[in-house]
Amino acid sequence: MDSNHDVHWKETLEHGEKIGLGTREYELHVIKQRACAQNGIGRGS
Question: What is the pLDDT averaged over residues 17-33?
């Protein structure tokens, strides 16, 4: 659902890519909860 019907988000992202602001291509990495706990992440430290 669009929060603003006047904004064409796909065209906006395409334009940003064309002028060098970034890319919509990315790679997801799965972070397991156990690995985070071993490193002390998420314990308020």
Answer: 92
